[in-house]
UniProtKB/TrEMBL annotation:
Belongs to the glycosyl hydrolase 2 family. SUPFAM superfamilies: (Trans)glycosidases, beta-Galactosidase/glucuronidase domain, Galactose-binding domain-like. GO terms for biological process: carbohydrate metabolic process. It is an enzyme of class 3 (hydrolase). This is Exo-beta-D-glucosaminidase. Keywords: Glycosidase, Hydrolase. The keyword Hydrolase applies. InterPro entries: Beta-gal/glucu_dom_sf, Beta-mannosidase-like_N2, EBDG/EBM, Galactose-bd-like_sf, GH, Ig-like_fold, Ig-like_GH2, Ig_GlcNase.
Length: 898
């Protein structure tokens, strides 16, 4: 464990570690290699890494620490983006923080003092102008270069502010050094990042440098803030106007003439301008002076389910006396996002003139803000696999590459400031977060300006939420809006994620009514509270217990015993909030509805069934009501899409990318063409998420007892449903069906004109409904006074399924595809309920990530289904793929996958 020590003790320890290198658990790291910096004007080189150490263990001042050659024996290495704790974890100073209560054992006192971040870089031509360009300092830092303080912490404050420091006069040929003395973070006192009740917070509060620090080189004229403002002709989309803007800044003491030229998409632009010493001017290229900037038949960017994702490029060069002085490069997309309030006051998003139901999830970065592009891309692919079109980033706004990926995959994003800390301290009453001081206002405005300039060109960014639980007051809002206006921000600005209003922006058009803890599936159909009406910016039934594989990776055997035996026990892997620290509400519902768990496996088995039905109902209710003429639903954000650590709640996919009932419930609800059952009115509806309409459909619903005996069967043919999220009601199941058992099953089948099955959906229901006590609703749930009786599922006869698989490899892409045929081979009439197939490799561990065409399926005797799983071949780690098949009432078997 890492603890603070006195300088004398540190010196002894450092000497000991040097003499015993290779034998200690955390050997001293070698000095990070100096970053070689290019000399070409317009080049930008990211510092490759740092040596870091607690300031309590470094007695020398910044003027000494930041000199080239300063000894760093015993310092920890850190990557180009790293919090302090992330670096310590990478060095092995602490055990796996995602397991058990290991995180609790990391001493927070180690991070109550500043930490030094020190990096060397090599310059061969010091005559070329040199700048340090950075953001992502948590929470503030004194910056030194080659022994000189170049920026104090009171000017380098805020996680999102961006800084450019001209250090040309300090740079020498050879090795140069930059050192950041990073201050501790407290999200209640600083405009940075915090975690509130999402997870157990990191002991270092994410202090560190979490975005790139770049060394930029240039000539006498700097080219900055280059961007393209697009305007798409609607509704025709037959043309688009591009306006190119850029700042040109003369950083020399002489008058210079520069020519700025380049291309914006297919259009060429060029202009010369004379600048006085240290003058800055904005250049504007418009269709009026460059007709080629009016594009005919532009390639328009769409969300994934609505069209393609073409991107254009902006490339500019500033030359002086025929030589390049600086360059600018940016990609951009052409699309128009609007979000007017509908007749009922709800926010209705439109992309390129077409309204869409926002189907989203709350995004969480890694708890220690570690950037892993492959891991991020895997989760974005999962979001598309689930049929989601949007991810909401409440604070923790990810680096540029995240939005590049969102652009490429066609996933809309809703970034914004976070709740319940300093960001809302001036307006949130008695909530956490201190009141603002005079110094906070310019930091907030600078944060908005920096994020606006960084995000404005990404077509995936659908809006910015300048408030979360609370809307800003007039002074704060004006600072935000002024910064957005100056940045040529064109996407909608939303005053809050809650039902709040701001003095200038007006009503939010959103609701934040929860729930955040367990409610029954029927809850989502009521047009009240968090039910399917309007735009619900964050909501779910709370607990999302992961698979048994993941639980055993994250919790000790004793903790797993408590998990299923004592729902009222505080769970470290749920939340630090007293409101959400236990699984009491979820445990009560599980026991009352399904029967008390008999062991850990039974608990997890029932949890997956419960999470499947609840998540499916949430998305189905909002989808069905999207086109209602009265109080339509316009958006729903599942709270949350993922967790930043190993969690027991608020996640459709777990930390290790395993998929359980919550995942496949969402995937089923959001499939392109979908047949579903309404818990409120028993209507069987067809929802068409495809762009084009569909005709000649046949819907069939059959009700079965848990023994498989049919009690009701009806088929309706000749159905048609328009595209774009439209729905139609095929039939309504009678309120009472003679002979139906208390617990029963409903099988819904949808076939196309050729008789092919295009959607299958199976429900487990009860003649005794869940009863909600709406008058007792609080901010996080509505109590249930009587539960649906689903205990009849326990009496379902055990039955057999078989699975056969074959696997093919694509050497070019490095992926494999396993094709699985699952058959119900049992005798009698009992169906195989919620059959799950896991692809496993070494030691029977799941191969992750994996994308299934379908999973957790229900089959009746004689039925079969063919599923495909796609994954990286390397994730098998040399093992042969195998299939682990399990289900509610089927034995678990593992078979080879070819």
């Amino acid at each position: 464990m890492f603890h603070r020590r006195t300088p004398l003790v540190l010196a002894v320890v450092a000497l000991f570690l040097t003499l015993t290198a290779g034998t200690s658990r955390v050997p001293p790291a070698p000095r990070p290699a100096a970053t070689a910096v290019g000399s070409l004007p317009g080049s930008r080189t990211v510092l490759s890494g740092y040596a870091i150490r607690s300031a309590a263990e470094v007695p020398d001042p910044g003027a000494v620490v930041s000199r080239p050659g300063y000894p760093t024996a015993g310092w920890y290495p850190a990557g180009s983006r790293s919090t302090v704790l992330a670096a310590l974890l990478a060095a092995g100073a602490h055990p796996d923080p995602f397991y058990s209560t290991n995180l609790k054992r990391v001493p927070a006192a180690d991070f109550a003092v500043p930490w030094w971040y020190r990096s060397d870089f090599v310059v061969t031509d010091p005559a070329v102008r040199t700048y340090l360009d950075f953001s992502g300092v948590i929470s503030a830092a004194d910056v030194f270069v080659n022994g000189r303080l170049v920026a104090p912490a009171d000017t380098v404050a805020g996680a999102y502010t961006r800084h450019e420091l001209d250090v040309t006069d300090l740079i020498a040929a050879g090795t140069n050094t930059v050192a950041f003395r990073v201050r501790p973070n407290d999200p209640r006192k600083r405009l940075t990042m915090g975690w509130l009740d999402w997870l157990q917070p990191p002991p270092d509060a994410n202090m560190g440098l979490v975005r790139d620090v770049s060394v930029r080189r240039g000539g006498p004229v700097a080219l900055r803030d280059a961007h393209v403002v697009t305007s798409l002709a609607l509704p025709s989309m037959s043309s688009a106007d591009l306006t190119v803007k850029a700042l040109v800044r003369n950083d020399s003491p002489a008058t210079v003439t520069t020519t700025v030229s380049g291309t914006a998409g297919p259009a060429a632009v060029s202009r010369s301008v004379t600048l006085a010493p240290h003058e800055t001017r904005t250049l504007v290229f418009s269709p009026a002076d460059h007709p080629a900037l009016r594009l005919r038949a532009p390639r328009v960017w769409w969300p994934a389910a609505m069209g393609g994702q073409p991107l254009y490029a902006l490339d500019l060069t500033a030359t002086v006396d025929g030589a390049p002085s600086d360059t600018a490069h940016e990609s951009f997309g052409i699309r128009e996002v609007r979000a007017p309030l509908n007749a009922g006051g709800a926010r209705q998003y439109e992309v390129n003139g077409r309204p869409l139901l926002i189907k989203g999830g709350g995004w969480s970065p890694d708890e220690f803000l570690r950037w892993d592009p492959a891991y991020v891309e895997d989760r974005l692919r999962y979001a598309l696999d689930l049929g989601l079109n949007t991810l909401r980033l409440e604070g923790h706004i990810e680096p540029d590459e995240f939005f590049d990926l969102a652009d490429r995959y066609g996933i809309l994003t809703l970034p914004g400031w976070e709740c319940c800390g300093k960001w809302e301290g001036e307006v949130n009453g008695n909530e956490a977060g201190e009141r603002w001081e005079a110094a906070d206002y310019p930091v907030a405005k600078a944060s908005m300006a920096a994020e606006a300039a960084r995000l404005r060109h990404h077509p995936s960014v659908a809006s910015f939420l300048i408030g979360s639980d609370f809307a800003p007051d007039r002074t704060i809002e004006k600072g935000y809006l002024d910064a957005l206006r100056a940045a040529d921000w064109t996407a909608p600005v939303i005053p809050a994620a809650s039902n709040a209003s701001a003095p200038v922006s007006g009503n939010s058009g959103m609701k934040m009514t929860g729930p955040y803890d367990w409610v029954p599936p029927s809850y989502w159909y009521e047009k009240r509270e968090g039910g399917a009406t309007g735009f619900n910016s964050e909501t779910s039934a709370g607990p999302d217990v992961p698979t048994l594989d993941t639980l055993r990776r994250m919790m000790s055997p004793a903790e797993l015993e408590t998990l299923w035996k004592d729902p009222s026990a505080a769970q470290y892997h749920r939340s630090p909030s007293a409101t959400f620290s236990t699984l009491r509400l979820f445990g009560a519902a599980l026991s009352q509805r399904y029967g008390p768990p008999t062991g850990l496996e039974d608990y997890v088995r029932k949890a997956q069934l419960a999470q499947y039905e609840n998540v499916r109902a949430q998305f189905e209710a909002y989808a069905r009501n999207a086109k209602d003429t009265s109080e339509p639903s316009t958006g729903v954000v599942y709270w949350m899409f993922n967790s930043g650590w190993t969690s027991l709640h608020w996640q459709l996919v777990d930390r290790y990318l395993d998929q359980g009932g919550a995942y496949f419930g969402a995937k089923k609800a959001n499939e392109p063409l979908h047949v579903q059952y309404g818990y409120d009115n028993r209507a069987v509806s067809v929802v068409n998420n495809r762009t084009a309409g569909v005709f000649g459909l046949t819907a069939r619903v059959t009700l079965f007892g848990t023994d498989g005996e049919p009690a009701y069967d009806r088929t309706v043919s000749g159905l048609a449903v328009a595209g774009g999220g439209a729905s139609t009601t095929a039939l309504t199941v009678p309120a009472s069906v003679p002979g139906l058992s208390t617990t029963y099953l409903a099988r819904l089948l949808l076939t196309d004109g050729a008789g092919r099955e295009v959607s299958r959906n199976v429900y487990w229901l009860s003649t005794e409904p869940d009863v909600l006590d709406y008058p007792e609703t609080d901010w996080y749930h509505t109590p249930t006074t009587s539960y649906a009786d689903l205990t009849g599922l326990e009496t379902m006869a055990r039955t057999a399924v078989t699975a056969t698989g074959s696997t093919t490899r694509d050497e070019g892409s490095g992926t494999s595809t396993t094709r699985v045929t699952v058959r119900h081979t049992g005798r009698g009439k009992t169906p195989a309920l919620l059959t799950d197939v896991h692809l496993v490799g070494v030691g029977g561990a799941p191969v992750l990530p994996v994308r299934w065409s379908d999973n957790q399926i229900s089959l009746w005797p004689g039925e079969s289904a063919t599923l495909t799983a796609t994954y990286r071949t390397g994730d098998l780690r040399g093992a042969a793929p195998r299939l682990r098949v399990s289900g509610w009432n089927t034995p678990t078997v593992t078979v080879p996958a070819g």
